[in-house]
């Protein structure tokens, strides 16, 4: 009997260990379910909306080379610039709506959305000259006169899209904060189907060319806005929408400050990889490297939509939990999303490695471009792995309201370290496009390390208290806790 005692003792010890782990696994599963409920539809919505521009570009490519250049330059440079600024300005709303929702101040969500509309519509008006004067601006950054003129004409036709952006991003953040992501997914999916049909009809069948492209793309974006607005006005969004209010014009300055910090933070990330294409164009014999890097950026763009979905989901989870004062839940949510996102990033990286000799041919018939793209595949794979964690950490920052801190980190890592390193490696040491991209990856690595450090060092209880005071401070005169 004596002989067996230690065995029994060990056994019960082991049982205790298993018991301790069981709730953790269960909790991980539960949090994972909540995350996917938000992230799944958010990823689908992002992909659908990204596809609107991508589809238009594909159809334009079927008309001719100049048309393709016009649409892709307008899409990536001019609309890309506007998209980055608008998405950034709108993401202040993620912090405020999420925290107000967590704190139970439902009525404030509608007021915040209107405040954001005021700011974003004003911003849209300020961006109009960039659209109108785009030909000289594009020539300034090295585009040919022919491409600049065609892109400029297309840009002016795309002005309605700019104002759709201004209304769309606040609406999305408003719905996301309440977890109403399925509504957005359904609307975006339906519009994408219509967009594909009408693009074919107007651009190719009726031969309206770029005019047809502009009509369908503008209409599709406005359909998304109108669909979402109808949903909000008809359902009242469970009390979060109580009609238009003069409160929308109260305390705009504080709101603008957070919006600007969000815009700077997001734009610095958005433009970082756009700059990569521009710098590559400065290489001797740039045509093949530019084509190759454009293919890689295209794939990276699709992958980024997954990260943007997680970014939205985690910023909703963190802001809701902080608003409700649940510091531990916010912290655990960050852990779950980081593990999930890294796992997906790892799978995507393996897929790129496995298909590096084949995937370039989906985008090009040129042997030289395909070879160059295969060479870049290793950098693309690494970028995708890094991009699985980095936007998630940015989402945590938005959920907690640290936009201005992350903006400084981005400037330092991207533009003081990454870009100069890329230019040195690419031009000075003659590594070409591989060198430029490697240097820029260095910047992303540094930024990820710093964000991981900040997240790990965070005192979440303090963040929950700050969220409470933020909801109080910006609640104007509505105190409906």
From TrEMBL:
What Pfam families has UniProt attached to this entry?
MatE
Could you tell me which InterPro entries the record lists for this protein? MATE_euk, MATE_fam
An example of a Gene Ontology BP annotation on this entry? xenobiotic detoxification by transmembrane export across the plasma membrane
As for membrane topology, the entry says: Multi-pass membrane protein
Q: Which residues cross the membrane?
A: 42-64, 76-96, 117-134, 154-171, 183-203, 209-234, 246-272, 334-354, 374-393, 405-427, 433-454
Where does the record place the region Disordered? Answer: 1-20
GO annotation, cellular component aspect: membrane
Q: Which UniProt keywords apply?
A: Membrane, Transmembrane, Transmembrane helix
Annotated localization: Membrane
Where is it predominantly found? membrane
MF (Gene Ontology): antiporter activity; xenobiotic transmembrane transporter activity
Top-level taxon of origin = Eukaryota
Its family remark reads: Belongs to the multi antimicrobial extrusion (MATE) (TC 2.A.66.1) family.
Q: What is this protein called?
A: Protein DETOXIFICATION
Q: Name the source organism.
A: Trema orientale
């Amino acid at each position: 009997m004596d002989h067996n005692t230690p065995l029994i003792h060990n056994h019960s010890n082991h049982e205790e260990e298993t018991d301790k782990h069981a709730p953790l696994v269960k909790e991980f599963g539960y949090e994972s379910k909540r995350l996917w409920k938000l992230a799944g539809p958010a990823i689908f919505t992002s992909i659908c909306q990204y596809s609107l521009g991508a589809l238009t570009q594909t159809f334009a490519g079927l008309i001719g080379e100049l048309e393709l250049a016009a649409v892709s330059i307008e899409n990536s440079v001019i609309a890309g610039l506007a998209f980055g600024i608008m998405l950034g300005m709108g993401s202040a709303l993620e912090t405020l709506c999420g925290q107000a929702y967590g704190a139970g101040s439902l009525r404030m969500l509608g007021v915040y959305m209107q405040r954001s509309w005021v700011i974003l519509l004003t911003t849209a008006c300020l961006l109009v000259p960039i659209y109108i004067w785009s030909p000289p601006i594009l020539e300034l950054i090295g585009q040919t006169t022919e491409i600049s003129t065609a892109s400029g004409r297309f840009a002016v036709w795309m002005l309605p899209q700019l104002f759709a952006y201004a209304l769309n991003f606040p609406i999305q953040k408003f719905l996301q904060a309440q977890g109403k992501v399925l509504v957005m997914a359904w609307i975006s999916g339906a519009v994408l189907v219509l967009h594909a049909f009408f693009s074919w009809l107007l651009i190719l069948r009726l031969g309206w060319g770029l005019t047809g492209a502009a009509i369908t793309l503008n209409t599709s974006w406005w359909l998304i806005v109108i669909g979402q607005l109808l949903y909000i006005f008809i359902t009242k969004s469970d009390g979060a929408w109580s009609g238009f209010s003069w409160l929308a014009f109260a305390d705009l300055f504080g709101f603008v400050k957070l919006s600007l910090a969000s815009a700077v933070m997001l734009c610095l990330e958005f433009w970082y990889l756009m700059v990569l294409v521009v710098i590559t164009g400065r290489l001797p014999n740039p045509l093949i490297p530019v084509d190759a890097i454009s293919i890689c950026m295209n794939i990276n763009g699709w992958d980024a939509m997954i990260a943007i979905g997680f970014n939205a989901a985690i910023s909703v989870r963190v802001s809701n939990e902080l608003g409700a004062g649940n510091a531990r839940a916010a912290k655990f949510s960050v852990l779950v999303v980081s593990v999930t996102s890294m796992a997906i990033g790892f799978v995507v990286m393996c897929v790129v490695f496995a298909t590096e000799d084949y995937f370039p041919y989906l985008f090009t018939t040129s042997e030289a471009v395909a070879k160059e793209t295969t060479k870049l595949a290793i950098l693309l794979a690494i970028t995708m792995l890094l991009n699985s964690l980095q936007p998630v950490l940015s989402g945590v920052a938005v959920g907690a309201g640290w936009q201005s801190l992350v903006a400084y980190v981005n400037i330092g890592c991207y533009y003081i370290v990454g870009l100069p390193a890329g230019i040195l490696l690419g031009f000075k040491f003659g590594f070409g496009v591989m060198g430029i991209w490697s240097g820029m990856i260095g910047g992303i690595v540094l930024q990820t390390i710093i964000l991981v450090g900040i997240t790990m060092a965070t005192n979440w209880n303090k963040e929950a208290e700050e969220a409470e005071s933020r909801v109080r401070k910006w609640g104007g005169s509505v105190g409906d806790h």
